[in-house]
Amino acid sequence: MQTSGESTKHSATTNSRTAKISTTATSTSVSSTTAAPTTAAPTTSTTQSRSPVIYRVNVGGSRLSAMNGGPDWLPDSEQHPSRFGNALWSGSHTNTTDDSVAMTAAVPAGTPEAIFHSRRWDADTKDHNDDTEMQYRFPVENGQYEVRLYFAETYLDDYLNRRVGPRKFSVEIGDEEVLHDYDMYKELGHDRGTMKSFTVKVEEGVINVRFKHKKEDPMLSGISIVRVESGKEKNGHQQ
User: Fold this and answer.
1) Domain holding 159: CATH number?
2) Taking CA atoms, which of 24, 143, 211, 215 is between 20 and 30 Å from 234?
3) CA distance 181 to 193
4) Domain boundaries, position 85
């Protein structure tokens, strides 16, 4: 069972190199280095001969087959953590739910609901030796990419949110904070999933996504990396 982790866990310094990344909210133009999440499904699309999706990870769960082309959702379970994550060092754990999860319009068409049935959460053990925040690190060619993060508050309900919550955490991509004190329950309620996307320009061949404690434990259900060309999504509606 997930622990409450009510105390604040401070950001840690990792040993991996941080890429130079400028981050913006996904849109039809890239004009700012300060990111804000998009809450609507992308609208720009073009036809391409290959999938624009580079990576998909079913965070906290098993491998899932792609429903509309492109790579499968790779596993990131307790027994088989993703090679892109740092579960062995961050002390994060996984849970699943059998609840039905509704999805907002921001979730790309074709995304399996099963993405939101699993989750990885980064427990705060209150041990100073456990100061590594949950992180995912994806090697890519230099260029522009869309980072899509899939969230659902499938643990805290109204009772638990009042008792041990609210869950608040921040998200960094590279050196940019893209979500500050994000509260899933406040935005979504219980058992409702969404996707937040951010466009990044990579200059050193890697995308680092880090989840920082504020209160309770950072939690994630899925992540995908999508190739972008000329400031536009290659296929805005592909998950």
Assistant:
1) 2.60.120.430
2) 211
3) 18
4) 21-34+54-232
Are 185 and 165 within 8 A, CB to CB?
A: yes
Angle among Cα 233, 61, 222 to the nearest 5 degrees reads 25
Question: 152 lies in a domain?
Answer: yes
For residue 8, tell me if it sits in a domain.
Answer: no
As a residue count, the chain comes to: 239
Is 9 a domain residue? no
Cα–Cα nearest to 150, from 211, 99, 233? 211
CA angle at residue 222 from 217 to 224, to 5 degrees?
130
CA dist 174 and 158 (Å) reads 34
Question: Whole-model pTM above 0.90?
Answer: no
* pLDDT tens, N- to C-terminus, the chain (239 residues): 454 333 333 333 333 344 455 555 543 222 333 343 444 343 333 333 457 999 999 999 999 999 878 899 999 999 999 999 998 888 899 999 999 999 999 999 999 999 999 999 887 656 555 568 999 999 999 999 999 999 998 877 677 667 766 788 999 999 999 999 999 888 988 899 999 999 999 999 999 999 998 877 899 999 999 999 764 554 444 55
What's the number of domains the chain is made of?
A: 1
Instruction: State the Cα–Cα distance between residues 169 and 193, nearest whole angstrom.
Output: 17
* Nearest-angstrom CA–CA distance, 201 and 204: 10
What are φ and ψ of residue 74, in 5° steps? -75, 150
Q: Are strands 232-233 and 206-215 parallel, antiparallel or unpaired?
A: unpaired
